[in-house]
Amino acid sequence: MLVESGRDDPVLSGVNHENDKIILSERASSTYMNASRSHYPSMSPNARSSNGVVRMQSQKTSEHIGPDGRFKSSICDQPNGFLRKQRALCLQYIQLMESVVRGYFMGLRECEYQFSAHRWNCLGYNLTIRSPPSRRKTGKVLRSSQAEGQSRSKRVRTYMDRLLSSGTRESAYVLAVTSAGISHAVTKACSSGMHDSCGCDRTIYDHERQPNFEWSGCSDNIHFGAAFSRKFLDSREKSRVLRNPKLGLTNLHNNHVGRQAVVNKMDIKCKCHGVSGSCEMRTCWRALPDFRSVGSQLRELFQDAVLVEYVNNRLVPKSALYRLAPVHIGNGYSRSMASESTSITNLPMPKENELIFTTRSPSYCHHDPRFGSIGTYGRRCSVDSKGPDNCNFLCCGRDFRREVFLQQEKCKCKFHWCCEVRCETCEKTVVVSTCN
Fold it and tell me: Which residues form a coiled coil (predicted)?
């Protein structure tokens, strides 16, 4: 349902009305872009995520940054949510931690790109869920404000934290794409010589022998990058296995799928040598893929993700369990769809190149911190689109508001000798639809 906006709309505060036209000012644009925040009073942009990588990014102050712009080892000692093994890796490979942070956020940005038009759009890593102050068993509020602050900081979680603990299809993608991002960024850092313990890969790979072909011996070292990503990220999930084996094993599997996606997309690049580009000899090396191709491949795996169950200490596709389910045939009798030799131990395990999840996804239409859902209130939509950003779909059947702006922009630019570019100012009608 379409709702035309009026002058009294709070979203339009700060706009100038001239001749019944709405002129989009800088203040109005900022107000409009942040309008949806009012729907979520529990959100805070100053996130204190339980994820150590996110908190490292938030702690990038001059105190922990050296003159070369890289992290100091002191960043590893901060209360950033690292486990003991992660902290040890941080101290040992402090020069690579900048790449770890960069790779993690590269994965999140890719996730936002892939799902920008969907109900779930991969946002929430910097939006915290505020819990009420904890009370002791006696019902008394914590006496010390300092103790209360420390306790609260431990309880604070972001929407992304909740999502990654939900076991949904969306959490599988985030785990995979961030694992791939760290693998990609660390590999790139090694090839550029940022750390003494890693460099380019000088392995001579199997290749059909040709008289004019040879390996250059300096490929991107994806083996080190993937191994580092595995050690750094999997340590948290291995500790989770002890508390929640179903979720922990699922997350470990999805981390692996992300790393493997980068390995599978490694490309072979060659350079020709010879007189006048005759290519009498080629030297080739393995090069990192464009990360967009990795994100797109994981997006396809997201569509075909498999629902799993935890049976007899291992993960099994739920569809395979149906073969063991009894089918009612009347008169109180039932027969099994499975053959006599079928058993739990013979059921297939998830393939190593498919994403898996344990919990069916919510609609993501409404604000639901349990699943890390921000909802679609205040989201931009398209009335004419036939995709997931269609207003009727994105707004989940709720009303949406249509706002018409006149946006000023430069146009009819011409170059004048010498050396100046002169432009006219034109007005462009902008129609924006947002979900209520």
Answer: none
Residue 54: name the closest of 188, 195, 163 by CA: 163
Q: Which of 283, 289, 270, 287 is nearest to 220 (CA)?
A: 287
Written as six digits, the tokens of 157 are 């979680």
Range with lowest mean pLDDT among 27-36, 152-161, 373-382: 27-36
Residues 64 and 176: their CA atoms lie apart, in Å, by 29
In terms of Cβ atoms closer than 10 Å to its own Cβ (0-12, 13-18, 19+), residue 314 is middle
Q: Is the pLDDT of residue 335 over 50?
A: no
Class of domain 1-39+377-436: alpha beta
To the nearest 10°, report the CA torsion of 38, 42, 47, 50: -150
Tokens found for residue 395: 């707004």
Residues forming CATH 3.30.2460.20 domain(s) in the chain:
1-39+377-436
DSSP letters for 348-375: PPPPTTS-EESS------S-BGGGTB--
Between CA 120 and CA 162 the distance in angstroms is 14
Q: Give the C-alpha separation, 393 to 397, whole Å.
A: 6
DSSP codes joined into one string, 256-317:
HHHHHHHHHT-EEEEEEESGGG--SEEEEEEEPPPHHHHHHHHHHHHHT-EEEEEETTEEEE
